[in-house]
Design goal:
Structural class: alpha+beta
Strand content: 5-15%
Number of strands: 12
Order of helices and strands: EEEHHEEHHEEHHEEHHHEEHHEH
Shape: globular
Keywords: Membrane, Transmembrane, Transmembrane helix
Radius of gyration: 26 Å
């Protein structure tokens, strides 16, 4: 005889050894980021920004930064909607004026007394973490998606740790603590950022940061060793070669060395973007980054060549090419409909009266 359990639930019912649909967790919905900007559009913005910045002796750079950020934010799309930037140029100009004033003051004091300059340098080191935290708050408070603002809630204690204490310890240990300091910085940034009331979270371990740094350091070492081998080979066969040819060959080797080291940067950027975003969540949603090291390397290499051949005029096209690839390598693994999530967050923020958003009228271009 077969007797049924009167207390059985749907989760307890199996068919051919598998849970019924009622017991299965819903699959996350992959939402790809896209970038709609073009090099020609950004070139027009960039050339006007550059000319006006030169004509105004740098004053227009604050407005140039806002126009640039707005273009890249508004060109980034997720689930049919774009991001936006609302920062005021006056706040950026104020922040840069503060930094410029501190620099001029330091130069003036250094010309008078070495002891006073050391004390002022210490004072500046104590002030900058305070300003950097407010710069992060400014950037997040002025960033939005579908009309809902982001926010940064990190405190000054954490800011002093990641912007002052950990860098000092990194220097004292001859960069051995660099990956640890970097992990603490990203953790501070992501764990203290929210979208509406929904918090971001960061889960990457310190050991994973050390792996990225070790790979990058290994490639840099290979570049240095390769350059040393070339110099040694050249020295062994250069007997009787004219001085001008020797200078040209050594210059070519040096340029090749610097180019090799420069091209290590996209390897680091690709590995770091994947590490950071593959371990970042937004409430129930996750992110996935799939930047290809070889692909990004190729983009950066061709960007460098074309920028050099055009005497810098290809720069805006290069910037758009890089941004498009890095943005479109990102996917949000949404745990549910994103429009419902955003609508819920807007209601939650509205219920709180948006009192949790701190507006700091300063940005030092972090």
């Amino acid at each position: 005889m077969h007797s049924e359990d009167p207390f059985a639930t749907p989760a307890d019912t199996f068919d051919n050894g598998f849970a019924t649909p009622a017991a299965r967790q819903p699959q996350p919905q992959p939402l790809r980021f896209s970038f709609t900007g073009s090099g020609s559009e950004f070139f027009r913005i960039w050339i006007v920004n550059t000319l006006l910045t030169v004509v105004t002796l740098g004053v227009y750079s604050a407005w140039a930064k806002v126009r640039t950020l707005q273009y890249f934010y508004r060109s980034t799309r997720l689930d049919g909607a774009t991001f936006d930037y609302h920062g005021k140029p006056s706040a950026i100009l104020k922040g840069r004026a503060i930094v410029f004033g501190l620099f001029i003051g330091y130069q003036a004091v250094a010309a008078v007394s070495a002891g006073l300059s050391a004390l002022l340098a210490l004072a500046l080191a104590l002030v900058f973490p305070f300003l950097l935290v407010r710069s992060l708050r400014f950037r997040m408070a002025n960033s939005s998606y579908r009309g809902l603002r982001f926010a940064f809630t990190g405190d000054d204690k954490g800011g002093y740790m990641v912007f002052l204490v950990w860098p000092i310890l990194t220097g004292l240990t001859l960069m051995l603590l660099g990956p640890l300091a970097h992990q603490r910085l990203k953790q501070y940034q992501h764990d203290n950022t929210r979208f509406g009331t929904a918090p971001f979270a960061f889960e990457a371990r310190v050991g994973q940061f050390y792996q990225v740094y070790l790979v990058t350091a290994g490639l840099s070492l290979l570049c240095l060793l390769g350059s040393s081998v070339l110099v040694s080979v050249f020295a062994s066969v250069a007997t009787g070669t004219s001085g001008s040819v020797i200078v040209l060959i050594l210059a070519a080797i040096t340029i090749g060395l610097y180019a090799g080291l420069l091209l290590v940067a996209p390897v680091f950027q690709a590995l770091m973007q994947n590490l950071v975003w593959n371990h970042t969540t937004l409430a129930p949603h996750r992110f996935r980054s799939s930047v290809g090291v070889g692909r990004l390397f190729g983009i950066v290499l061709t960007n460098l060549i074309l920028t050099a051949l055009t005497l810098g005029l290809f720069y805006p096209f290069a910037r758009v090419r890089t941004a498009r690839y890095r943005v479109e390598s990102m996917t949000m693994l949404a745990a549910g409909p994103l429009d419902a999530f955003v609508a819920g967050e807007q209601q939650q923020v509205g219920a709180l009266g948006d009192a949790a958003v701190d507006w700091y009228d300063i940005d030092i271009a972090l």
